[in-house]
Amino acid sequence: MEIELQLIGAALRSVADEMGAVLIRSAFSANIKERRDCSTALFDRRGRMVAQAEHIPVHLGAMPDAVAAVRAHDPGPADVFILNDPFAGGTHLPDITLVTRTVLGFAVTRAHHADVGGAQPGSLPSDSRRLEEEGVVIPPTRLDDATLDRLVSRMRNPDERRGDLRAQLAAHRLAAARVDELCARRGAARVEAAMDELYAYSERRVRAAIAHLPDGRFEAADRLEPAGGGELEVRAAVTVEGDEIEIDFAGTAPQHEGNLNCPLAVTRSACYFVVRCLTDPDVPASGGAFAPVHVRAPDGCLVNARPPAAVAAGNVETSSRIVDVLFAAFGHAVEVPAQGQGTMNNLTLGNDRFTYYETVGGGQGACPGADGPSGVHVAMSNTLSTPAEALELGYPLRVERHSLRLGSGGRGRHQGGDGVIRELRVLEACRLSLVGERRVRSPQGARGGEPGAPGRNLVNGEELPGKATRDLEPGDVVRVETPGGGGFGPVQSGH
Amino acid sequence: MLGVDVGGTFTDAVLLADGELRTAKVPTARRQEESVLAAARAVGAGEVERFTHGTTVATNALLERKGARTAFVATDGFEHLLHLRRQDRAHLYRLCEAHPEPVVPLERCFGVRERIGPKGVLAPVELVPGARVVASHEVAPEFREYERASTTAIDAYLGPVVARYLEGLGNACHEAGLPEPLVMRSSGGVASLAEAAAHPSFALVSGPAAGVVGAARLARLEGIENAISLDMGGTSTDVCLVADGEAGRATEREVGGLPLRLPTVDLQTVGAGGGSIVWRDAGGALRVGPESAGAEPGPACYGRGGTRPTVTDANLLLGRLPERIAGGLELDRSIAERAFAGIDPAEAIAVVNAEMLRALRLVSVERGHDPRDFALVAFGGAGPLHACELARELGIGTVLVPAEAGVLSALGLAVGDERRDRVESFVCPLEEAGELPAEGEADLRYAGQSFELTVPLGPDPAAAFHRAHEARYGYADRGRQVELVAVRTAEVTPGPELRLPCAEPLEARGPARIDLEGATCWISPGWVGVRDGTSSTLRLTDVSRKGDESGN
């Protein structure tokens, strides 16, 4: 690779990283500042992603759709576009995306806001049936002060929303300035060539790694646990041919009445995540890394939903299940990890005065050569926990317990990771919304490893279903026990 | 004044007396106290007024997990805190990659019935006496329980090991007629032996901090208050920003992958140095490090069996190193050439420079400082080889290369200020905080944010915060409430004055190579190096910049 392009490429990646640092450090939502539920990226003029600061994988493949949606509106050099519509470049409504132009393309920030004005406080209702119930739907819109005021006035804590959006805007100003500086030093043509090379470089690396996978067609299916009982099947066929992969979700359940539906952008992110884990985990994030991966899903199915489907849990839960299905499919060809907790255990508490949202880590499935880590996010998330001391300062809540759920990981030659026990006592009346999966079906072991323990939700010791909404009184205690990961290989004698 | 800095391979001593400077280098022995005394003897230390020590005993004990058998006791329900961390996994896409093991295993983590809320004690605790107990409020009295717990556990874990070492060293010094050593802490301040032994976690970046202190004091001697230190050694490079003569400070740092919530000089460390291996990855990109040839076998050109190309080999091939370096080692060009078959050494230098540039930008541009307002102080064995090219990339017009480039950390020890840091937690609106100290620093944020900016206390800390926020993040929100999170004060006793001998005047126009003691300086084309006879420091100036006011 030409050395100058490599060096400019490194500088472009630094710009994406610095955007992320500015956003996290100046934001107001716990989701963004404590948990880093956000991503930042640079795109070229053709709308291809060339560098991304990834904090969580679910944003991995979903940003190009946002740029495509904005490009259709012919953005001017000074325009700021805002969107969150899952069917027009977004993922789920709490993820608010801003897109601006740089002299050589686009800058994008996406951040999970604590509330976007849905019927319930917080961003993740357990029982929404239509997108509109989940909050303010923002199609790609030019953002000016009046629009910003109008939008945040329809959400809870408008002042916090405004603060978070200002933090996002700060990252965009930085991107514009840094790309300008780089062009002044190196020349715009060279920077543009470096963007092409960043894309091509990742593509080369991933193609080389895919070429090492055995060719063939591999199938798998798994099920989700929708509110109110029943099951929803996610089915995938993976075809590896040479240095390309095709993933087809034909046979997956149709979109449903609840909110486990996914827009295709989220489904793609889950596919890219699995391919990356199995091919080249260290490849720099750019669109090129995913160019050899083709994703197809029937229109109107659970993983390629159509309006007005509710999608709040698709991003967090269905995406986790897609990962399980794809690992299972690839498992016919290569060794893959056992299943991890397969859920993000979304917990929302709120009333008119406050909104608090968190996700809770659990057990990672054991790998062919190592135990699964305990108490971590396992697939499409990697958000941090909110410190109890930060939480108690900011909200009328008290953390009563935050510990490992010892023994919940599946046994095996390599042990599955343990889940987590988290207990929150509410100090004022508020509404609870819980969205969890793997409450019925356990995370499975691999190659003879034992399954992990399924998760549980309780209020004052009384068991609730995986997806639940209820009003709480001061003093009530919510307890979430997250699933353990599956073990890998049979338990060996003497253990 | 005597300064002794223990490094991985060598222990350096600097003796300053009546404007005279003596230096010595001895190999580091397994028992560090022996190397310390050997270095003191080698430098001819006799009548010493003050002896300051930089040690890696704490760092090594942590990295090699050779601390004491330690238990962790927390509020019931939080006993697994050290193992839960912040629930993020170690690598986004390598799912079973393990985090560094906490210093206390799970079976020695205990919960007790006790609880403190934001407003004070909800249920009190009584501790059984008899063990060496470290309470978190003694070391890191700040909110965020995981980071505080990690810091406290590390402090307890290192306590007995470091106390034993320092006690032994103190006795040995007494027998050798040396004063009781002071110890450099990560904050860049010096503490008494007893203080250092009580809380060893404060000294985990002792040596690198001393280097920054040395760089700051040396720059001041040259009339420069704003500088960036560049300390490039064999396996890693540390950079730090010095503004108004003071090293930038941070409140948290990771060591060996574990967070420490303690005052430290704001060092950025890059895993690349002279011994870093050059390689090409699967995508065809040239890469440098993090793998290093280390001291053994060392770079290929050392002729000790290394065959893979390193940064040092690249510098040799480009004519930037002499055939014979300090210590008398002969460099073998032909082995370096073989190692670099098919790789352009200039490209390898460009790649490693890009890594360092990233760190230099992080401490300057990304913190709201314009590097063009700073000089670069280059030291460590390899810093002066790369300084001109790095400076030009950043628009820096002046590079200082001390004659003592090979032992600047020891020099920083010899003259470092004594310093005791205090932190008081607030977490309340700034206007409700009551009277604050006139001097020191405040950690402030907009109410609702989670990250603070540290600004100087003074007549109007709020205004200083708005300005800092604007510089760092590009906007200020003057209508929003400002929250005080912590007040940081330090009791500082200035260290001795630094007086260095003068060296022969010298002028060299790049490209040129200047051999120093323990380091080599490369003057790039377009740069001029001058030593004017009033000091020992070589001042490099970018003369190609004349008429280019933008500095780009």
Explain this structure.
- The complex is a heterodimer of chains A (495) and B (552).
- Chain A is α+β, with helices and mostly antiparallel strands and 495 residues long.
- Chain A has helices spanning 3-26, 30-33, 63-71, 145-153, 158-186, 188-210, 264-278, 314-330, 388-394, and strands at residues 38-44, 49-53, 80-83, 95-102, 105-112, 141-142, 216-224, 232-241, 244-248, 293-296, 346-350, 355-358, 397-405, 419-426, 430-435, 456-459, 462-464, 467-472, 477-481.
- Chain A contains nine helices and 19 strands.
- The mean pLDDT of chain A is 94.
- The radius of gyration of chain B is 24 Å and the shape is globular.
- Chain B has three domains: 50-204, no CATH class; 215-417 and 494-552, Nucleotidyltransferase, domain 5; 418-493, no CATH class.
- Chain B is of the alpha+beta class and 552 residues long.
- In chain B, the strands form ten sheets. In chain B, strands 11, 12, 13, 18, 23, 24, 29, 32 and 33 form a nine-stranded mixed beta sheet that branches. Chain B has a six-stranded mixed beta sheet with strand order 3-2-1-4-9-10. A four-stranded antiparallel beta sheet of chain B has the order 25-28-26-27, covered by helices on one side.
- Chains A and B meet through α1, α5, α6, α7 and α9 of A and α3, α10 and α13 of B.
Compact overview of the structure:
With 495 residues, chain A is an alpha+beta fold. In chain A, 28% of the residues lie in helices and 23% in strands. With 552 residues, chain B is an alpha+beta fold.
